[in-house]
Amino acid sequence: MDLIRLLRSLEEFLYELVGWLVFYPRTLWRVLVRPGEVARYTRREFAKDPEHRFADAISPVLMLILSVVLAHALEMAMRTAPLSLSGPLGKLLFSSEQGLLLTRSAVFCIFALGAALSTLWRQRLPINRDTLREPFSIQAFLACPFVLLLAVSQAVGGEAKGWGAVIGVAAVVWYLWARTRTFVALNDVGYLPAAGFVLASFLLTSALVLALGFAIVM
Known about the structure:
Elements: H1 2-33, H2 35-45, H3 60-77, H4 88-94, H5 97-122, H6 129-157, H7 161-186, H8 191-217
Helix pairs in contact: 1-2, 2-6, 2-7, 3-5, 3-6, 4-5, 5-6, 5-8, 6-7, 7-8
């Protein structure tokens, strides 16, 4: 019986893995070129029963986790050296592959969380587990190309700093554009007010991340 359970678990894992190979690039492309449509799609999926959600895509949080893993694998393939910090917390978070992976996951979850919280604040909705789940899931989708583009920027920057900077700027511009398109798609607001709101939210979240990073380094 234990062998049968093991084989069935292996079967489910392999089927899920094959599904990732199909759905991950398709979902990533949809997020990259049609973020507003993906946001509306996510809202429709959360109106369904949990077992029927995202049948033709990868769930948002899993998508973000896979993107972080791919970004980390890219940096390992390009032999990007981990940061060397003297502080004990810095060593814990940045001196190993596992620490870098967890730190990167936490950073982009902060970006998704900050965007989700600002959306709830703008909509004057209470913040609880139920109201937070949908906007956080939408922002997790949007963070996926941002994660990968920044990883490419960092990897390329080791060989050609100019191109690395260009890709990094392009990543930020795309992310702001995608969040603005999403905000317009889900709220009754014009493009310019949405862009201003998104920019303010992004700068506030970035300042928080930088402050945390500075505290860790010190």
